[in-house]
Amino acid sequence: MAFWDEKTLEEMSQAEWEALCDGCGRCCLMKLEDEDTGEIYASDVHCRLLDGQTCKCTDYPNRLDQVPDCIKLTPQNVRTISWIPKTCAYRRLADGKGLAWWHPLVSGDPETVVAAGISVRGRTVPEQSVKPGEWEDHVADWPEWEPPEEI
User: Fold this and answer.
1) Is 147 part of any domain?
2) Which long-range contacts (CB under 8 A, 24 or more apart) does 108-116 make?
3) Is residue 57 part of a domain?
4) In the Cβ-directed half-sphere of 107, how many Cα atoms lie within 13 Å?
5) Contact, 143 vs 44, CB < 8 A?
6) pLDDT tens track for 4-55
7) pLDDT tens digits for 51-83?
8) What's the total number of domains in the chain?
9) Residue 53 is part of which domain span?
10) Which among 67, 71, 104, 108 is positioned nearest to 87, based on CA atoms?
11) Which residue, of 80, 89, 143, 146, has the greatest Cβ tally within 10 A?
């Protein structure tokens, strides 16, 4: 039996926790908040530390110092942060759903996350390229999309 089926999120080692990340990059997309309603919108703008082609943080060990808004996911906060994508392995496990078919730990192939349409690879722009007044142009609905449970 796989560790993610045997353990709760709280019981996982740091290495197991890190292995759950599918590398999609969705959590590194900027969120936009409507100041009047408080509603949160997904965007196609990625954090300045995310490499838009590899979907890897360019300074992962120091990300929290480099980007004060960066949130370190924990077993506790994945259950309460509303903007964590429904496709996220941490959220899926917290919700009792298990890992999806396209997750690299299930498929054995890190490219299934791209093939399934989950990855942000090549679909985003870096935050430093968005000028003031242009942010609303980057609201996107695709980061909320979920593929079918089965292929």
Assistant:
1) no
2) 110/23, 113/22, 113/23, 113/24, 116/147
3) yes
4) 16
5) yes
6) 999 999 999 999 999 999 999 999 999 999 889 989 999 999 999 999 999 9
7) 999 999 999 999 999 999 999 999 999 999 988
8) 1
9) 9-140
10) 104
11) 89
